[in-house]
Amino acid sequence: MKVDDDAVNAVLNRLRRAQGQLAGVIAMIEAGRDCKDVATQLAAVSKALDRAGFKIVASGMRQCMTDVGENQAPMTEEEPERLFLALALA
């Protein structure tokens, strides 16, 4: 999938933020921090990952539907919808 540079940068920033938040969650668990604090940070990690996934799908949807490689059929209209729903319902 080809995604424009601005979208790639936005996704990478979100993934790096999530990576830092996840490292923080691990440190919190290792330090025996309060359940509420850990759950709050886990929710933040999950939201950052969801946003990155949505950005990738939204930015690449047109390319996914039109750009095809060898022995690869273009995506149907239903396939991008399933991708969105897989992220939304995960």
Tags for this model:
77% helix, 3 helices, mainly alpha
Short description:
Helices cover 77% and strands 0% of the residues.
Order of helices and strands: HHH
Average pLDDT level: 83
Beta-strand fraction estimate: under 5%
CATH topology type: Methane Monooxygenase Hydroxylase, Chain G, domain 1
Q: Percent range for helical residues?
A: over 70%
Rg value: 17 Å
Class by alpha and beta content: mainly alpha
The domain count comes to 1
CATH class identity = Mainly Alpha
Count all strands and give the number: 0
Count of DSSP H/I helices: 3
Structure explained in plain terms:
The structure is a single chain. The protein is an all-alpha fold and about 90 residues long. The chain has one domain: Metal-sensitive repressor, helix protomer (Methane Monooxygenase Hydroxylase, Chain G, domain 1, Up-down Bundle), CATH 1.20.58.1000. It has three helices and no strands. The chain has helices at about 5-30, 35-65, 80-90. α2 runs antiparallel to α3. The protein is elongated. The chain starts with a helix and ends with a helix.
List the helices and strands and how they pair.
Layout: H1 5-30, H2 35-66, H3 78-88
